[in-house]
Design brief:
By secondary structure, the protein is of the alpha+beta class. It has a single domain, classed as Alpha-Beta Plaits. The chain has two helices and six strands, in the order βαβαββββ. The strands form two sheets. Strands 1-2-6-3 form a four-stranded antiparallel beta sheet. A two-stranded antiparallel sheet has the order 4-5. The longest helix has 12 residues, at 48-59. The radius of gyration is 18 Å and the shape is elongated. The protein starts with 19 loop residues before the first strand and ends in a 9-residue tail after the last strand. The model is unreliable at 8-14 (pLDDT under 50).
Length: 104
């Protein structure tokens, strides 16, 4: 008798591009956007130059500078079980005065 494995649905995260995965919308990021600093979740292999080029291509604005931060995975205890929160790489993109990025 052949064994059948149950099929599982996989969630696909809709990515913006190969370099920029998604905008990071948090309270702190929205406060920084008033100072022309926008935060994005980026690919682990992304570089500052690649991020700046992708922002310029996608949003038609010129970044002044890009800062990158790696956020490590964290252990967490939820509902009696130990788990891990995934780590990520985020980029803060600074724009010149007058330029804005509108997230839809």
């Amino acid at each position: 008798m052949a064994k059948t494995t149950p099929t599982t649905e996989t969630k696909t995260v809709e990515t913006v591009s190969a370099v920029i995965i998604a905008p990071r919308v948090t309270e702190k990021a929205s406060q920084q956007s008033t100072d022309n600093a926008y935060t994005f979740i980026v690919a682990p292999s992304a570089t500052k130059l690649a991020i700046a080029a992708e922002i310029k291509k996608m949003y038609k604005v010129t970044p002044l500078s890009v800062k990158i931060t790696k956020i490590p995975p964290q252990k967490t205890f939820i509902r009696g079980n130990w788990g891990m929160k995934a780590g990520m790489k985020k980029a803060i993109v600074f724009l010149k005065k007058g330029d804005t990025i509108a997230f839809s």
